[in-house]
Amino acid sequence: MTLAVDIFEQFIGLGNGFAWISSVNLVNQYFTDRRPLANALASSGDSIFVFILTPFYQWLIDIMSWRQAMMIISAIHLNICVCGALMRPYRSQKKSQNSAPLSATHSTKGLCRKSLVQEKISGYLTLLKQPQFICLILFGFFSVIGLFIPVVYLIPHAQNIGIEDFKGALLMSYWSAADLVGRLGCGWLANLRLLKSIRLTIIMMAILSILLLLIPLAKNYTSLIIFSCVCGFFLGTIMALIVTLISDVVGVEKLSSALGLIMLFRGVGCLLGPPLAGLLVDWTGVYSTAFFLAGGGMLIATFFLILTDYFTTYGQNSSQSTGNEKGNSNSQVRPQEEAEKGELGSDTRGDPAVELLNAVPE
Question: Which DSSP string corresponds to 201-270?
């Protein structure tokens, strides 16, 4: 039974990864000026459906068996295929005008596939050589611990302090409603470009880390509602900024490769985080340790995000300084060359042999 559940969860994660990466990459190709707001709107569906479907799933399980409930849930998730069929790849006008004829496309299809594979591999290797991207991978690994542990253990923590099952499920609805407000509000704020996306994310990450460490202080249903709303709000701000942050660091051209690598390590963190929190809960007998682990993981992720900002800013400053040095050297070389040409011309004018040769008629 456990093996079947593990295989089932692996296939769910694989399908969600394929759908999420392709849709996010498409949104970032279509939007440039309002990219933060577009990412926030595109990701707001998560909050809306968690808000609506969490109590609905609990109601289904209460009135029927879990097998019948899973069949209904699977039918709802099948609509992702319909949404994917409506998507169209982005093609600029220049590419469409300069596109090759159909016969030439068929003849060079094999070469194009080989070149695409080689380009993808070289893109991965180029990203892995950048220190800011390595810090970004470690940020994704540790942040996912803090993102998923509260979702898994918030309802059991509420049940442990004597709250009913349905009320405990409603906590996730409060969390998701605040998450939606945070995504839309932070997407609008990031679109104003008052602060860099990575630095805005650092601030939100630090606040959320402290809030996760304080969740065990909630001992009644009212305090749990307050913590759920506040934590959900700041989690929404982070989820609205994370894709824009990655595109700002690596560029839109390498976004798909970067998302693939980051999601790989995030999957490892998601695989290790909740079981590790479960071991701590079994060992200590309290759910507070799970939230301490989540807050600690978010603090470590914040540290690596600060390093990412440092390496990104340092790389931009160094490239600008090298460009300025090249421009200054070129501007200094040109006057020297002109002066040398002038000196050569003046030397040849003063030479009597040259003047005698010029005076001889042809």
Answer: HHHHHHHHHHHHHHGGG--SHHHHHHHHHHHHHHHHHHHHHHHHHHHHHH-STTHHHHHHHHHHHHHHHH
Burial 250-277 (b: 16+ CB within 10 A, else e): beeebbbbbbbbbbebbbebbeebbebb
Rounded Cα–Cα distance for residues 34 and 28 (Å): 10
Question: For residue 104, is it left (φ>0), alpha (ψ between -120 and 50) or beta?
Answer: alpha
Which ranges constitute the DSSP H helices of the chain? 2-30, 35-63, 66-77, 79-86, 93-97, 102-107, 109-128, 131-160, 165-191, 197-214, 221-250, 255-284, 288-350, 352-359
Q: How many residues does the chain have?
A: 362
Instruction: List, for residues 7-58, the tens digit of each pLDDT value.
Output: 666 677 677 777 777 777 778 778 877 777 887 787 777 777 777 777 787 7
Convert 310-332 to b/e letters by CB count within 10 Å (16 or more is b): ebbeeeeeeeeeeeeeeeeeeee
| Residues in Cβ contact with 21 at an 8 Å cutoff, skipping those fewer than 6 apart | 256, 259, 260, 263
Distance between first and last Cα of the chain: 106
Rounded to whole angstroms, how far apart are CA atoms 83 and 73?
17
User: Which residue is associated with the tokens 């460009």?
Assistant: 323
Calpha distance 287→279 (Å, rounded): 11
User: Residues 275, 280, 285, 288: is their CA dihedral positive or negative?
Assistant: negative
Q: How far apart are CA 280 and CA 259, in angstroms?
A: 31
Provide the whole-model pTM. 0.72
